[in-house]
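This part of the workshop introduces the protein records we will be handling. Backbone structure tokens are a discrete shorthand for how the chain folds in space. Once this layout is familiar, the rest of the handout is easier to follow. The record below serves as our worked example for the rest of this section.
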Amino acid sequence: MNKNFFYATAVLIGTIVGAGVFSIPFVAAQSGFLIGAVFLVVLTGVSLLIHLIYGEIVCRTKEKHRLVGYAEHYLGKKGKAVITFSVLFGLYGSLLVYIIISGEFLSAIFSPLFGGAPFVYSLIFFAVGALAVFMGLALIERLELVMALFLILVIFLIFFSGLPQLDISNLETINLKHFFLPYGVILWALAGGAAIPEIKEIIKLDGKRYKKVIIWGTIIPAVLYFLFMFMVVGVTGPATSTEAIKGLANFLGRGIIILGAIFGALAAISSFFILGLCLKKVFWYDYKINKHLSWFLVCSVPLIAFLLGLREFIPIIGFLGVVLGAIEGTALVLIYKKAKKLGNREPEYSLKIPKIITYALIGVFILGLVYQIFYFVK
């Protein structure tokens, strides 16, 4: 193994692991730990297969693209339009999630000292994040990998600190009423497609290592999620809070809670900046909108949504995971089928996926979308 292998793996892990990890224990506590664990295992397999499919698409195409470009290359203008909508929807939705969840983390840190509701802290966070997007602070982007390592440390500290407080009975409950709740949240937390083309450039032409990077870079976050979910639900049970951290306060003490909340806040500002800058460049470069108006479009939409009352991040994450999984997952399967026939270079690796599996993947995404819409309407 060379350093490029470890760096590329770290990039994929850093892309997948983020504030989404803090939402998993709550949905697992609501549905029951065993149901949450089954969803985590199954959706890890689904996400791994989708990441490998995306990797082969990258390998089979001479030109360098991102998902929108691959959609246009293999599915035409209509495919590009659908994926463009998905990308915009996903970025705006994720920005809104980080505004909401940041208020919870900052409140856990500062409310005991200064008072103030999560709503106020969310607005403070937004002001800082919007300024960072306007100024283009490159420092935050360089801290991504460091914060991913910090999160791993926090998860292990919580895991070992919580062992004496573990109550096995909290892991035995099952609530079929909320059976489907973990689906979208876990799918969103496992998404790492944005890094797949990037790690190909890091790993160069070594196909075996590229495939191994995708495998390990997807499985390691899933293992971390399981450990975090196991310990938080095992300790707090029905008292598990939506962002996991506050609910631990009565069990593990304020010190480790502050550590987790600090990480959550840092991850939120980092992710808000990176996603905001990405969306700003979409408007600026692809739609030729001047950079100041691009910045306004980036920041105004999630702020307006927040002020209008969209402040429950668990349903939003779940909806994002389901919708983006259905659109982008289905698109990648269709692009993969086209790339197998029309790809213009010899791939470093080639998957042998039976047709029934590809149809099953699309079926899972579509059924998930239909059920989620029914769940929201209900």
In short: The chain has one domain: 3-377. The two ends are 51 Å apart (CA to CA). The chain has a mean pLDDT of 87. DSSP finds 15 helices and no strands in the chain.
